[in-house]
Design a protein that fits this description.
Length: 512
């Protein structure tokens, strides 16, 4: 046992140290406060599923979309999230999703290494790609798309070299379909893989390789059919198509807009794109057709919506990994080579350096560095977001915690016209008390008409008063300092009920 431990420590070289420090850094950065605007309605969904012992088909949270069809396409993810919170609170939820984000980073690293990129370069490119994807991190079901896409890409490469059979693709896509409607990206990746590999086999006049693509193709088709086995049937397939093709959503919801290239994630995405161009300019990149198809298809989605940037980072990894290797090879060719050291100089070098064999002392040093630096990153960056007091402070800073309590204290059913980002929090905090929101992050439930009415009030369009008169809300909850709060303060129809540094609550004058 001592010999085994000694061998493991001896093999803990600088490359392994660098990789593990990378993953510690990704985990530490991904531990974020639970302040995603949609988090609390996802948790409410999980609780609702347990209470109903079934799946709702129409909206139950709002007064503006009562009776509208509701496809809870993330039902299994919502149930999972609610179970995690019941088990260990928001702290455990934050840790679990940071862990899932780290797994996606591991997948990215393995994809880069699978095309021969040097380990150190793969660490650097993984960090760049991960940070380019950081706008989508947090405790949210979308993270499942990253993990499942990364594992699928690795699995498809294993299928190509016969390390895995293809039959797993079908149940894998079925599971994904019940976790998130983004599973259609998985279907597309698998289909593009089969098309690309089939094309390469046909061009090479290799009938055996061509026949080998039939099995993953059949499994992908079976997975698409199997995905219909979900609480909402074909609606789960149609839902993401409606969201992707909505100009209203893309124009008014930040994460559905095109990437912002004036931010750090945007700069890093540009860096990956320029890396691809530089590698292709060397004319030394020989990528498989499937790798080209993955990169181009997901680049289209990424440029259309920053929500899809992480999927592009994963899907394009084999291509820009090859590009990075080509650039490094070209730089090495331009670098003057040093003459080999004379034998008499090598004799004076320490034996461990001359032979480049790992030693126990070096292994112990690397393990010590990992423990010291890794612990330091986690303590400095991750722990503050895990402490309940820090989490509550973060929630208090972005959500109307105090004014929501004033709303609940009215002790009657209340129809509240709320700011968009607060709908999810109000659902989680006030649903059981009879609070019904005007809007939340489930834009597809409300439809364009309700969303446009919200925008008219939020932007103080000429028709904003008519919108409030038409919906007749009992209360209005908007950010303190928003121009609407100034106008309502001067309107005798409304009475200021409560105010804090985050929000101001108005109720109709004369209401109890």
């Amino acid at each position: 046992m001592i010999a085994t431990a000694s061998s493991m420590i001896r093999g803990f070289d600088s490359g392994r140290l660098l990789r593990l420090l990378l993953f510690c850094a990704l985990f530490s950065l991904a531990v974020l406060p639970p302040t995603d605007p949609d988090l609390f309605w996802h948790l409410a969904n999980g609780q609702l599923l347990l209470q109903l012992h079934g799946w709702p088909t129409t909206d139950l949270y709002s007064f503006s979309a009562t009776g509208h069809p509701w496809v809870m396409h993330e039902w299994l993810a919502d149930l999972f999230m609610y179970g995690i919170v019941r088990l260990g609170g928001l702290s455990l939820l934050v840790v679990v999703f940071a862990g899932l984000t780290t797994v996606a980073g591991v997948c990215l690293y393995r994809l880069l290494r699978s095309v021969g990129l040097h380990p150190t370069a793969a660490v650097v490119v993984t960090l760049v790609g991960a940070l380019a994807s950081s706008t989508t991190w947090g405790a949210r079901p979308q993270v499942f798309n990253l993990v499942l896409a990364g594992l699928l890409l690795l699995g498809l490469r294993a299928v190509r070299v016969s390390r895995l059979p293809a039959f797993w693709i079908a149940p894998y896509l079925w599971l994904w379909a019940n976790l998130h409607s983004g599973f259609l990206v998985g279907v597309a990746l698998a289909a593009l893989f089969c098309a690309g590999e089939g094309w390469d086999a046909w061009r090479a006049a290799d009938p055996e390789r061509l026949r080998a693509t039939f099995r993953p193709a059949i499994a992908t088709g079976a997975g698409l059919l199997l995905s219909l086995v979900n609480p909402y049937g074909v609606q789960t397939l149609l839902f993401p198509l409606g969201t992707l093709t909505s100009p209203l959503i893309q124009a008014n919801i930040q994460e559905w807009a095109s990437p912002n290239f004036q931010t750090l994630p945007g700069y890093l995405l540009e860096a990956l794109l320029f890396l691809m161009l530089a590698g292709l300019a060397t004319r030394a990149v020989r990528a498989r057709t499937s790798e080209w198809l993955w990169a181009l298809a997901l680049l289209f989605l990424a440029l259309s919506s920053q929500r899809h940037v992480p999927l592009f980072v994963l899907a394009a990894a084999p291509l820009y990994g090859r590009c990075a290797q080509a650039v490094l090879a070209r730089l090495a060719a331009w670098t003057p080579r040093q003459a080999a050291l004379p034998a008499e100089r090598v004799a004076f070098l320490p034996r461990a350096i001359a032979s480049r064999r790992p030693t126990l002392a070096v292994g112990i040093l690397n393990v010590s560095l990992l423990l010291a630096v890794g612990t330091g990153m986690i303590v400095d960056r991750a722990l503050p977001s895990i402490r309940p007091a820090s989490q509550q402070a973060a929630i208090d800073a972005v959500f109307p915690v105090e004014t929501a309590q004033a709303l609940i204290a009215l002790q009657r059913p209340v129809r509240v016209f709320n700011a968009y980002d607060w709908g999810g929090y109000l659902i989680g905090a006030g649903r059981s008390a009879g609070v019904r929101v005007f809007i939340d992050g489930r834009v597809e439930v409300y439809g364009p008409a309700v969303f446009q009415d919200y925008l008219a009030v939020n932007n103080l369009a000429p028709s904003w008063r008519q919108v409030l008169d038409r919906y007749q809300p009992d209360a209005v909850l908007f950010p303190t300092g928003h121009p609407l709060t100034t106008l309502l303060s001067q309107d005798p129809t409304w009475r200021k009920q409560a105010q804090d540094r985050v929000a101001t609550l108005f109720v109709r004058a004369g209401a109890p």
